[in-house]
Amino acid sequence: MAGRRQPRRLDRNIAYFDEPPERRPPITEVGPLAWVRANLFGSPLDTALTLLAALFLVAVCSFLLNWSIGTGNWYSIIFNLRLFLVGRVEAFMDPRITFLFLFIAVLAGVNFAAWSRIHLRLWTILAGVLLSLFVIPWLIASAIPLPPTWLAAGQREVTSGSITARPLERIAFIAGAEEEVAFRLVRPADDAELAQLTSFSDVMTNTLRNAAANRLGSAGRLATIERELAGDRLTGRQRAAHEEELGKTEVPPPVHSTYEVSAYPVLLTLLSGETGEEIFSRSLAPGEELRQTLPRDGWYVLEKRVADSDDSIALLRASGLYPIFDRSFIREGERAFQYMRATDRLLVEGGRPRDAGGADLPMLGIIDHQYRGERPLADFLRLMLGPFLGQLNLGLTLFVAFMAAAYAAAQWLRRRDREQEAPLRRVRRSAVWLWLVTIPLAFLLIAGFGEGGVLRASDPQLWGGLLLTLVLTVVALVAAFPIGILLALGRRSALPVVSAASTLYIEVFRGVPLITLLFMSMLLVQFVLPGLGGPDNAPYRVMVALILFSAAYLAEDVRGGLQSLPPGQVEAARALGLPAWRITLHITLPQALRAVIPAMVGQFISLFKDTSLVTIVGLIDLTGVANLIASQTEFQGLRRETYIFIAILYFIFSSVMSNVSRRIEASGSGAARA
Amino acid sequence: MATAGNDPLSQGTTISQMDEEPIIICRDMNKWFGEFHVLRDINVSVAPQEVVVIIGPSGSGKSTLIRCINRLEEHQEGQIIVDGREMGHDVRNIAAIRREIGMVFQQFNLFPHLTAIQNITLAPIRVRHRPRAEVENDAMQLLERVGIPEQAHKYPGQLSGGQQQRVAIARALAMEPKIMLFDEPTSALDPEMIKEVLDVMKELALTGMTMLVVTHEMGFAREVADRVLFMDEGRIVEQGEPEHFFERAQHPRTKLFLSQIL
């Protein structure tokens, strides 16, 4: 004690009356700035990775965007939207599928009301999006004029590379009443102007354009070589190579002067396609413009000739004439022809003009009159985006409207029951009932039965696109679910025979690739189920394979859930005297299934994506449609656009599913409520 | 009957209830887990309304013994007779015996996907096939008896450990059993919750329920038990009335055990 040093006491009494005010933390510590600092630039490595990722993202996005706007032929999507959605189903299916679509909207609305909420803000956003789907196409259509169509006239052939083209003297096109057509004879000042022609153009104009571009390319190269030879920075070998190239490179005379482009007036005659009656016949001088309002819907024929020269090519900038898609199909035993204008889907049935010999006149078809050159943004919006959005708006609006109506009705029901102990009980009960009704209803509407009537049987072979993809997924899952549960219980059974059989089944089906099963099912199912033979029933045979396949995987999911249950659960149930089947029904299965909801949704999503394999056995599902389009004449070989589109569709559906699964998990009904 | 008098284990103890016919009889019972001999020559009889507390070090076979009585474990030799029925392989007999026995577990083992009241009403509705309204009414009374009527519509995950165990007791009682088995009912509880569960058990003992309790709560054994059984290495080493047992234990193993925990 004696050695211990006494601390010096600071025995002043202090009271602090100036309370420090409460302050917000520095801006670098909260809010988006802090988030960015902490998550993107936390450390030097972090910063490097962030910058690298950003660079990569910008590069990929800008490439994709440039390609989409400038080059991609999105007509392959716009004109095949129906094929993508429902395949080639009969026309009588349309009201049935629409009904099912709206029924699902109602189902979604009631389910949101029963188990979740859609806040007013989300409804506002949805309404805004839908409104914009109407407003944006309208704005685009009214603000941006349609690009012109370039047509050439003349009696002379034009050669560029291996292509030789001769202008068509007469060309048929379709137009509507009261529409105005306009023509102007354009005289390009030089080849550069010619090479920069974009928009729809006939083969002849395109050949001229290519010839001009090639000549400019050669001239440019020659200039480079000459400049480098004049300098003194080349090695001897490079100099020799350059001199050799110089000897080979030949720059042809300017294209526009060779073909005397638009040097002479052009004689234009417009005839009615049906009657052959002349609407006008005029000579058009360079720089002059001709306008004419058309009397009626239907076919017209334009005759164009250069009057005073056989060597001159006339270049016409036309508006009001746009490329045509043509389709033929069998209707009531006869071949019918439909012609549709690319820019606005104006439709004309048959009546294609013929020449004196009875052959079809050449028409302004989309194949020979494609959009050439790099598309500017305005043309992308006017020709691609606007029409595409215009096709979506009505369907989506109907869907959201029905969903909102069902949601509102359910909310009303809840408000009426709010005095009761569980105000949502009635809403939830109706949601469950709707689910139970959905599956048989969908089957009835899609498959149908009998020969006549509204619900007559449809041809399964014609099911396709998203419809087939969803049908296969849902059928496989719904049918596989009970089988999977039985297999899971069987595998855990105390009876060795049952457990061995279940294990064998599960291991065999998990051990064979789905694609093999699909091929086998196409060939083998009919031996077991003779009713499913024949090409018509291919979708049903595929369903069998998908059901058997997913049952095995589901069984493993469910078994995982059963195994994760603590043994005390079964003991407690047994101690209460519950018989074994009641223990399974009331205690183990409900808990196991809740525990494996995420795994089952994962299974559902992968099944949804795996259905794309049915393409290989010849079904036209979403992926099949993408391939099918590549074989259409107009879109020969175009795969990029269609694959991007179906990738987006697959992604939207998968992410909706995983979103729902996340909501189920978050709501707590997913995990056992321990 | 004749068994009561001849029961070798009632020798040396004077238990008044033994005059009646025992409701549980274990005779020369043996059980093995694989090669391991967990229960050796168990001979026990329990009279109706008797409260028997089983104590002993862990691994001594206490839990296994009571789990054999409602056939959560299967014994391999000897007899177990509950309420006049012998436990054998006859499934109907097992079901009938289980209906007479309620059990409370260390880990509560409530069904997490059902609310408290659904936990209680499940078995009466599904096993006894009684009308739902009546069962729910009874269940509310049971919840009042264990002191948590306001928790009826909560899920087990929303209840404290003590509340869960009381629901578990109510669940067992809902089957109106003649016998209650308690397998370390307070071992998984926080200290402040042990009392609320023990109070319910005491109240139950006072109403004359036949109870077999495996526990480490010596206070409870002293206060409530009619008889205390001490087990070690699968044997019943010593038994007696609590005053006798805790004050004048005879077997050295019992003395050692008591000296370690008291």
List descriptors.
heterodimer, A: 674 residues, alpha+beta, six-stranded mixed beta sheet, four-stranded antiparallel beta sheet, 21 helices, 54% helix, globular, disordered C terminus, B: 262 residues, alpha/beta, 10 helices, 10 strands, 38% helix
Strand content of chain A: 5-15%
Whole-angstrom Rg of chain A: 35 Å
| Quaternary organisation of the protein chains | heterodimer
Q: What amount of the residues of chain B lies in strands? A: 15-25%
Characterization of the model:
The complex is a heterodimer of chains A (674) and B (262). By secondary structure, chain A is α+β, with helices and mostly antiparallel strands. Helix content of chain A is 54%, strand content 12%. Chain A has 21 helices and 15 strands. In chain A, the strands form four sheets. Chain A has a six-stranded mixed beta sheet. A four-stranded antiparallel beta sheet of chain A has the order 4-10-7-8, with no helix packed on it. In chain A, strands 12-13-14 form a three-stranded antiparallel beta sheet, with no helix packed on it. In chain A, a hairpin with a 5-residue loop joins strand 7 and strand 8. In chain A, helix 15 packs across helix 16 and helix 17 runs antiparallel to helix 18. Chain A is globular, with a radius of gyration of 35 Å. The two termini of chain A are 58 Å apart. Chain B has 262 residues and is α/β, with parallel strands linked by helices. Chain B has ten helices and ten strands. A six-stranded mixed beta sheet of chain B has the order 6-7-8-3-9-10, sandwiched between helices. In chain B, a hairpin with a 2-residue loop joins strand 4 and strand 5. The chains are: A alpha+beta (674), B alpha/beta (262). At the A-B interface, helix 17 and helix 18 of A face helix 3, strand 6, helix 4 and helix 6 of B.
